[in-house]
């Protein structure tokens, strides 16, 4: 049984490792190796630390040992920046639990609309949680002296 709790600074290293594991392992089901490599090259734990410092709501799903298994980041204004689950713990309801908790946090801030950019693999999870696809986003990531084309989906959930 997972517990959802607020982020702690001691979580940063584990969250960085689970994020990279999710990108490098799980994302290969929908993206090419070049896309995965470019995407993982963009990840920076500093972004998480900066978000925590500015007051982003970071929620962590933990196991019995209190070790992070999944997490989400809600930026001010209702932008859901990240939702990642360690590959060993996908499909166990952690994303749904985090999304429910983040909605409560958004409502507490007076937010009535959450927006996100979901990967190909995360899209169905968000849809099952009541998010609607606004459009597909095709873009490139600078990588290894060139650019790698990739896509995700702009999505929203009205929470009233």
Helix content: 25-40%
Largest sheet, described in full?
A: 7 strands, mixed
Structural class given helices, strands, pairing?
alpha+beta
In total, the number of strands is 7
How many whole angstroms does the radius of gyration measure? Answer: 15 Å
Task: Give me the side-by-side strand order of the main sheet.
Answer: 1-2-3-4-5-7-6
DSSP strand (E) fraction? 35-45%
Task: Please work out how many helical segments DSSP would assign.
Answer: 5
Distance between the first and last residues' Cα: 29 Å
Mean pLDDT: 95
The unreliable regions are: none
> In one word, what is the shape?
globular
What is the string of helix and strand elements?
A: EHHHEEEHEHEE
Could you characterize the architecture of this molecule?
- It is built from five helices and seven strands, in the order βαααβββαβαββ.
- The chain is 34% helix and 35% strand.
- The two termini are 29 Å apart.
- With 160 residues, it is α+β, with helices and mostly antiparallel strands.
- A seven-stranded mixed sheet has the order 1-2-3-4-5-7-6, with helices on both faces.
- The chain is globular.
